[in-house]
Amino acid sequence: MLPRTCIFLYCIFIGLSSFSAAASLLNLTLPHQHPNPEAVVQEVQRRVNVSISRRQMLSEQSQCLTGNPIDDCWRCDPNWAANRQHLADCAIGFGQGALGGKGGQIYVVTDSSDHDSANPTPGTLRHAVIQDVPLWIIFQSNMVIKLKHELIINSYKTIDGRGANVHITGNGCLTLQLISNVIIHSVHIYNCLPSGNTIVRSSPTHAGWRGKSDGDGISISSSRNIWIDHCALSHCTDGLIDAILGSTAITISNSYFSHHDEVMLLGHNDKYLADSGMQVTIAFNHFGEGLVQRMPRCRRGYIHVVNNDFTKWEMYAIGGSANPTINSQGNRYTAPVDPNAKEVTKRVDTDEGEWNGWNWRTEGDMLVNGAFFVPSGEGLSTQYAKASSVEPRSAGLIDLLTMNAGVIGGPRDNSISISYGGGAATGATAGGGGGSSGRDDDFFGMIFGSGAAPTKSSPSAIMLLSLLIILSLYIMTNHIGSLSLL
Description:
disordered C terminus; metal-binding; signal; lyase; Pectate Lyase C-like; alpha/beta; globular; nine-stranded parallel β-sheet
């Protein structure tokens, strides 16, 4: 028995070592991270430069152009509502591959209620997000959706609040766990409270026990290809957006953050090595009233912070530990009055002798009211200087690039309609009224292309081969051992 166990353990070790060696050769820790993050950064810069140049040339003919490449991609089309899924072509940065529900059916949410987290009612948001097929989810009217428990979102979904005033609040809020390809666009998310210790459905065929959630606005765990755009987030119990446990390929853009302490966490903990492959783009956001810290707070990974407007913080704006790469380009940082809180950056619980080698760099940032950014490591060198064709646009254009941050067409700051502590919105026009329209299956609309899910990526060939070898040797070892007993 002992020799067979030793052989089995040895095979596991060899298989994992082969996978680790291949990953290190490519400098990858996650199977879906981009192998060249600097190329993604330069492509973001190129897209911004092209949009701004187009605006300068065509400003007299087209008043819709802002220079923001995401907005200019779809908002200039007066018939955008007839081709909503074009939005999926407009993302930039690490999350630009997020398909959302592109290619699937339109699902119209007609019912704002959330009575049963285990058996959601057709026509509700909860019923839409758990489906196994790609769906582009829109809303029949303005509505406030007060969640009973966390809303677990399945792969290949777009939550598209354009054309309606959609508020999501209550218990748990949005959970993205072990999934891919989700777009969340134009919704208010606030007053999210811890919830759980109950059965919550995550797909048409699975409902399972959920422990108590943290009360994040949006919780991203072990997920990839995520794009959050034009949302307004505030007043949650834990983080407004948390991305942990090997999540990657994420873009957070054009959103408005306000009235919160710990705004955004990227990385599970300092010892979680897989988060070294986390790659996140944070672009064209407004960090506004009542914010304290973590815009974001990073562990490991590569974080590109580009063309954001940081107007408020009480402790610091960008922090981190465990050697993350932070690339800050073309942002405006306005320091608070407090003379002890002028520094943009914070290395959390780390001695200078350790963090002075971390790659934290600033390029083209505007530092206002005494703000200062402390670069380190490769960020102190000039090796990242770019040609003028791809350099980050000046922070002097921040007002233009972030002028529409938040939910388009409504108040950008959630504090206008809520009070801290978890109550429902009072200033929003609630549609749906908690009841459906009475029509059978009217929440499915027209079909754009195929309703089949795009082909998902296969597991690593190296890992698969290793597991097959381990299984074969284990079977052979057991078979030989059985023969020896005859």
